[in-house]
Design goal:
203 residues, alpha/beta, Rossmann fold, two-stranded antiparallel sheet, globular, FTHF_cligase, ligase, 5-formyltetrahydrofolate cyclo-ligase, FTHF_cligase-like_sf
Length: 203
């Protein structure tokens, strides 16, 4: 059964303030630093994906100052790894679908102003068929807690990953996105691994 999402006003206020603070810090990273950080983080996460023997990997296209995934995308294509991008579910609010992503994939902008693959069921993969999901995040804490944008998309996608062992979730973020602790709810799915430009954190 998929988790239901609700929250108290106080928790919402705390989360909103944290999101604003961390997103501001992320946006202040210079282009030069972004390039350097992405290069080092890519090497770290590539080593982890190799250990996992991941052949089907979902990831995201960078938005709003996130750690750039383009170097990772290029490297995984070169290694022959099958890549997938999320798309907002057209009928079920708050859920994601995943579609194959190649250099020829046509992309469209969704209602969140994020590029996603066009709807082509022949190129869709189910979450449990993925080996790993590289997840975007706004903030993370010392226990692997993850805070996203508040829509619950990845929490729903990953709700059962521990029961079946797939897809293995890996957070990908700047070091400045770490906070000491995050307000958590019962539906929040903690991450077993988070990769930053300087560290591989395992929980």
């Amino acid at each position: 059964m998929k988790p239901q999402f609700s929250s108290s006003q106080s928790a919402k206020a705390t989360r909103t303030a944290l999101r604003a603070q961390v997103r501001d810090a992320r946006r202040c990273i210079s282009d030069k630093e972004q390039h350097s950080f992405a290069a080092t983080a890519t090497q770290l996460i590539l080593a982890e994906l190799t250990k996992l023997e991941a052949k089907h990997v979902a990831l995201y296209l960078t938005n709003d100052g996130e750690l750039d995934t383009q170097p990772l995308i290029r490297a995984l294509w070169e290694q022959g790894v099958n890549l997938y991008l999320p798309r907002l579910h057209p009928f079920t609010k708050g859920n994601l679908l995943f579609f194959a992503y190649t250099p020829e994939t046509a992309l469209v902008e969704n209602k969140l102003k994020i590029l996603e693959p066009v709807l082509d069921i022949s190129k869709m993969i189910l979450p449990h068929q993925l080996d790993a999901v590289v997840t975007p995040l706004v903030a993370f804490d010392n226990t692997g807690g993850r805070m996203g944008m508040g829509g619950g998309f990845y929490d729903r996608t990953l709700a059962n990953w521990q029961k079946i062992g797939k897809p293995y979730p890996i957070g990908f973020a700047h070091d400045c996105q770490q906070v000491q602790s995050l307000p958590s709810e019962h539906w929040d799915v903690p991450l077993p691994m988070i990769v930053t430009p300087t560290r591989v954190l395992k929980f």
